[in-house]
Design goal:
Chains A, B: Homodimer. The structure is a homodimer of 345-residue chains. Chain A is an alpha/beta fold. Chain A contains 9 helices and 14 strands. In chain A, helix 1 crosses helix 9 and helix 4 packs across helix 9. In chain A, 55% of the residues are buried.
Chain lengths: 345, 345
């Protein structure tokens, strides 16, 4: 990375649901960009977009695209990252990869800045951004891990369709219109774009995100399980996940049950969460105040509420964790990593 | 109850979301009805509906309405049941109450026919129908309870708006139309009709069903906890619930995690569930087949899928349980109880 006070940034997948959010955040945060390269597949090359009032032409991503680039943000699918991330590294860039391509690679740190920014120091050119559903959960759990230790996690998710990309958002809207008009509802994308079977998403809950593995869990569930262990640096923590897509456009919600190693008081838990960077506690049951996906949409924080002690296990705690999956769940986490890298210079 | 081969039936709340389903089932099942009385508040009295091709005029429910009635099905809210159920009993009727009024009364059996029809024998005039979210879960768990014993249950629900009545269905549809048209979305009913604050339900997940109790759990969550213990006749079983409303019209889905007392093999679990009355197993991950609310709508069975062993606890099991909340979760369970009472005569 150069020692100048500005950084040449490449964004691969600039027109996607996450790429659009990354561009907006780089602008909003006034990230010290020297030159910005927006890269894509050959199909989208030549299109233009606006960044800080200037027109940027999208170029086809090739190995040579990364010449002179300091920070390369990848958000164009795992196969693109596998083909090009190392090409970027070879040319001196630090890659922040938002796909699943390198997350479980032992050579690649998997980073959520509020949780384990120290892991980023060990990078060999690539830093991975965790899966959206993992990021919001580990932020909410980190202060409790530090104070009480964590023995187990059981999570059930309520995930927005935006996690499956822009086309899934359109698909849900179109399906919902059809359902309201009494017409046949036919899914085109969900649950998994690359698989043959489609299920209706309008007015439904689909217990499949990503493909199934042999153990009966989906890849999304295994991401939550394995990424959590890696981020917390603890192979012994027991994690179980059920990942479900619901007819929500933006914002994943999670019903999180944990058991801590040491005893806690609920009031202390609320205080720890309230004081933790990146968390906003919304938890006034008497006023019907708790996190909602529609309130979290467009925001950077992780929202936590419904905080209550289990009735059978004194070390058991329930929480409801909500976050915009495209922002902190993806784009904002990546931009935060970039900001931290730059701040360390 | 008379010894004739037909039974005089009263239905209180005949025009509601559940009452309508009860009438449809009594007709479909050709229940041996002598005289059918459809009862309601003074407001709806005088309206008519059709049963087996005949016009039935709705009458105002009064204590005298139950003279000569053998079976009274109540589905008009807890306050109506509290005011009139004992009046019906006094006049010789057996009441099957679909409200929460008597569920936790130690004198009143709480019955799911596939699970504990034997409890109904102890009735003193009233038999309670459990809460919708409880019914589908205890059906799915009963064969496992019998074979392996149950130590704990952790459940997160994905509940349809029809559980909050016909007006909530209209509210979700209206809100969704507004949201798709880019207009402001304002909820009118949910999360709880009787509470002041309304939240948007369109494209959202609301972690509140019914009012909050002092322990931070909602009344809906406490129903699942307490009713499960009562139905299984086991105060020691540990139950934890998080109840969430999602933008689904018909059919509750549940992410259920259990720990059994004795070890199990997943294949045996699937066989036990497949062979259990009232359950249909849908569990072929390779074909993306699992229970879906849109498939369960209008059906009587409890659908179970995503059956898999936990990765940390060898006695831990995950399942996805789906059922039409208005049918087996309410109307069909009540009609089943009535059929069983009649069969025992």
């Amino acid at each position: 990375m150069s020692n100048s006070k500005t950084y040449n940034v490449a964004l691969v997948g600039a027109t996607g649901a996450v790429g659009t959010q990354i561009l907006g955040l780089l602008e909003e945060r006034n990230f010290p960009i020297g030159k910005l390269k927006c890269l894509s597949s050959a199909r989208s090359a030549g299109a233009t977009l606006t960044f800080k009032g200037e027109t940027v032409t999208i170029e086809e991503a090739t190995p040579e695209s990364f010449e002179g680039v300091d920070i390369a943000l990848f958000s164009a699918g795992g196969s693109v990252s596998k083909a090009l991330a190392n090409e970027a590294v070879k040319r001196g860039a630090v890659v922040i990869d938002n796909t699943s391509a390198y997350r479980m690679d032992p050579e690649v740190p998997l980073v959520v800045p509020e949780v384990n920014m120290d892991h980023a120091k060990e990078h060999k050119g690539i830093i991975a951004n965790p899966n959206c559903s993992t990021i919001q959960m580990v932020v909410a759990l980190k202060p409790l891990l530090d104070e009480y230790g964590l023995d187990r996690i059981v999570v059930s998710t309520y995930q927005a369709v935006s996690g499956a990309g822009s086309r899934a958002i359109d698909d849900l809207k179109n399906q919902t219109e059809a359902a309201l008009a009494g017409k046949e509802v036919k899914g085109e994308i969900l649950p998994v774009g690359s698989l043959p079977k489609k299920h209706p998403m309008a007015f439904n809950a689909i217990p499949q995100i990503d493909v199934f593995e042999d153990n009966g869990f989906t890849a999304e569930e295994m991401k939550m399980i394995n990424e959590t262990k890696k981020i917390f640096g603890d192979d012994q923590i027991k994690v179980a996940a059920t990942c479900v897509r619901v007819p929500v456009l933006f914002g994943h919600s999670e019903s999180v049950y944990i058991e801590t190693k040491k005893p806690f008081e609920v009031e202390d838990v609320k205080e720890l969460l309230t004081n933790f960077e990146g968390i906003t506690v919304v938890d006034q049951p008497a006023e019907q105040a708790y996190p909602l996906a529609t309130d979290a949409a467009g925001k950077k924080e992780v929202f936590v509420g419904r905080i209550r002690k289990d009735l059978s296990y004194s070390n058991g705690l329930h929480m409801w964790v909500v976050c915009d999956n495209l922002i902190k769940g993806a784009a904002w986490n990546a931009v935060q990593i970039a900001e931290n890298l730059v701040a360390e210079k």
